[in-house]
Amino acid sequence: MKTVLLWLLDWTWCLPQTLAGYIASRYWLDNLAPAEGFGAAVIPWIKEHEEKWGVKIYLVTPKSKAGHWFLNVISGFGCGRYICLVDAIPNNGIVDDEDTVSHEHGHIITGRIIGPLFLLVMIYSPLFCNLLGRWKMKHGWTWLHMATWYYQQWCEWLADKLGHVDRKAWLRKWEE
Questions:
Q1: Bridge partners (DSSP) listed for residue 59
Q2: For residue 51, what are the β-bridge partners?
Q3: Which residues is 33 bridged to in the sheet?
Q4: Closest CA to 70 of 123, 38, 28
Q5: Is 176 helix (H, G, I), strand (E, B) or coil?
Q6: What global pTM score does this model have?
Q7: What angle, rounded to 10 degrees, do the helices at 124-138 and 143-150 form?
Q8: How many domains does the structure of the chain reveal?
Q9: Helices and strands of the chain, counted as H and E runs
Q10: Cβ atoms 80, 18 nearer than 8 A
Q11: Closest CA to 83 of 61, 105, 68, 63
């Protein structure tokens, strides 16, 4: 029942972002793979999250990432009922960043709350912050400094809160 209600919500109140997520997932279809396509390399929580949240999670392979400029600018996105993880597959082939999945799910929850305003509000702001952060890195900021600043921005902070991500603990992993 929950799955049907989420599907109805996504294809009515959240129609603009669901269409955008669907179109993006179709556009990059050659660069994306459904999580189950990675077999044993995907840890079980990916499938559990798809079922629990009523979403579809796609992974960008490192080889595919090299072939598209936009997939090198982002680490992932959540739009409509689609989550695309770009930086989730390290060299050993194991998907190991549950925090990124939960963060992107936080963006989907935001979209389910604000509905058709999502694309206007939540896409522009994170995209602007992402590009500004990357510009700052080219002008002396370290990756950790940029990430700390980026995840303090309201749209990213909200996605962390709704996705139950402990960003301070996540950042501490990168300090080590």
A1: 33, 85
A2: none
A3: 59
A4: 28
A5: coil
A6: 0.83
A7: 160
A8: 1
A9: 10, 4
A10: yes
A11: 105
